[in-house]
Amino acid sequence: MSSANWSSLRPVVLSLAVCILAAAWSGSPRADAASAAGPDTVPTYAVSPIGWVRKEAGRTFIEIAPRYQAALLGIDELSSLWVLYWFDRNDTPEKRAVLQVHPRGNPENPLRGVFATRSPLRPNLIALSQVKLLAVRGNRIEIDGIDAYADTPVLDLKPY
Questions:
Q1: Which of 44, 90, 108, 146 falls between 20 and 30 A from 134, CA-CA?
Q2: C-alpha Rg value of the chain to the nearest Å
């Protein structure tokens, strides 16, 4: 992604991240319990997929679980989406413990903290991709492609 594109997307991505964190933290009984327990106590949260990435015959879809299909109302009017998904194939304690990487796995690139990279190795395996919406049929959204494996769990969708 060019720096010009990143500059225009950065406020959106930062706003999205702040909203996610604020929603997860505010009003949470666990947040109150964690504050009372002390600074070394780390709260945990459960997240469940709303759907999955599907790849078939060169096409890519987000398949939404039937119980969330009603949440797609109006999505067909959008041209692009933010897709939040889980890097499930990196979900091991060892991979979550990696805090510094060489970007793109290239040792010639300077070592960076994972928060300064798009590395799939990170403490919380949340991924974010902007995709172009091509069609909506029932609980399936056809998109132009995504940097995720088939059957990757999708956590949320946001309008771009």
A1: 90
A2: 17
CA–chain centroid gap for 89, Å, is 14
pTM (global) more than 0.90: no
Same domain, 99 and 111: yes
* Single-letter residue type at 128: L
pLDDT digits (tens, 9 = 90+) for 32-50: 544 555 677 889 999 999 9
What's the domain range around 91? 49-159
Q: Which positions ≥6 away from 77 have C-beta within 8 Å?
A: none
Encode pLDDT of 92-107 as tens digits: 999 999 999 999 999 9
Indicate which CATH number applies to the domain containing 107: 2.40.30.70
Helix (H) or strand (E) holding 33: helix 29-37
